[in-house]
Hints:
Layout: E1 2-6, H1 10-18, E2 24-29, H2 32-37, E3 44-48, H3 54-59, E4 65-70, H4 75-87, E5 92-96, H5 103-107, E6 112-114, H6 117-128, E7 132-138, E8 143-149, H7 161-164, E9 169-176, E10 179-181, E11 194-200, H8 204-212, E12 225-230, H9 237-247, E13 253-259, H10 270-277, E14 282-288, H11 293-302, E15 305-311, H12 318-331, E16 335-338, E17 346-350, H13 360-371, E18 374-381, H14 391-406, E19 412-418, H15 421-429, E20 434-439, H16 445-457, E21 461-466
Parallel strand pairs: 1-2, 1-4, 2-3, 4-5, 5-6, 12-13, 12-15, 13-14, 15-16, 17-18, 17-20, 18-19, 20-21
Antiparallel strand pairs: 7-8, 8-11, 9-10, 9-11, 16-21
Helix pairs in contact: 1-6, 12-16, 15-16
Amino acid sequence: MKVIIAGANGIAEQLIQRIGIGWEVSVVDIDQEILRKFSSERKVEKIQGDASSNLVLKKAGLKHSGAVIALTDSDDVNIEVVRLAKEAGVPRISARVVDIRNASKYKKFDIDTVISDNIAARQLEHLLEPRRVASKAFAGGRAEAIELEIESGSPASGKQLKEIGEDSFIVGALLRGSQVIIPHGDTTFQSGDLVTVVLHADAFSEVVNLFSGSESKFPLSFGKNVAVILESKDQLGAISEAEDIVINTQATSLYVLKKDGIFEDNIETDNETISAIASNVDIQIKSFPKISSKTVDIEISKTSIGILVVPLGTTKDSSKIKNYINYSKKNKIPILFSRNSNPYSRIGIKLTSDLGEESVSRIALDIAQKTGATIIAHEVKEPEFFSQAGSSEDHQDFIKLEDTARYKGLEVKHEESHGNIAKGLVIKSESMGLFVLSASSSSNWQKKKITEYVSINSNISILVIPSKD
């Protein structure tokens, strides 16, 4: 995510040191010499020019920025930067008020402002990293106290203090609901706990990642193995894709449920061929005269299956796809409709407010965390008289998704179009390697039809996740 900082000064240097690695930073300053001397331990794009110029901000990437921060020594420049960022629809805009007498001039833009240098660096950090809700430096800046909310899926969630404790920090207290707890070695941390941590300043990133970071867990909440159905030699590509899924998730093994005698020649056995294709994972192969839904049910009941891979190739067999979507809902097992579009460099999702542990968004982030893929959050808007959600709600949904992705070090992009949602998602999917959708068991007809339509009409692999509703 891009952040543009106007003003190459000490506040900017402090801020860049503190914000997460997920931010791509551009610094704009009119003074070429100041810009040349501006130093940072991380990669920063330096742009020489007047930050109050729309052309200069566009050169810095204003159109695709997630945040703009005005830190120059001039209120006139800062206010113009804010105005241009507001016009460009940047979701996070912040500014330094140089002269407190000018504070009222910023109010009409409805943005966050700060005044003193020290407060500026700390408050702007909180605006960019909202889960870190408080911090205070002391001991000459060599130590710090911070409050963080434990994220679901973070390395600390579900762990006892004695399992994660290190010499570089001390957990002084935690707030769970309305109860304040002074932790000891056997205290178990839970997602949603607000923890107060005292730490060495150089352990800042380590502590933030421990409590607010998030580890990939998919598909463990559904099962620990991947199963793939194989009924002909034309479906061998699904074996390779299933192997990639095992490698790039927390799955343990690959189970192949195959029909007898797939290969007519006897140069090597079916099992030898399959094992050679999926040579990088633990694999178990079972053969059957015919693979029916009953066969699949029996085998899945015998082991822990977290993902069922169904080869499609170029077929658009709508009845088969609908049956497996219903199977996913009934048995609470994710289905990967394999069209051999791996490896995944871009993973598409439909923008939603749901960021729960088994949600489409969280699972897509888990896979992206392993594969290094970019998440593309698609928002296809129906005509205004059909639409129920306001644009401000959609805006907040994307900000929440960005915040979650940042703690995984992932890139998220937002793409928007208008028209029929299902058709729009099919068009958008063509530039993806994988699209992740929800199999809703509710009576929501639209959700059901969108998932069916996209699964049938896309030319890429579709991962269908059973929802809790």
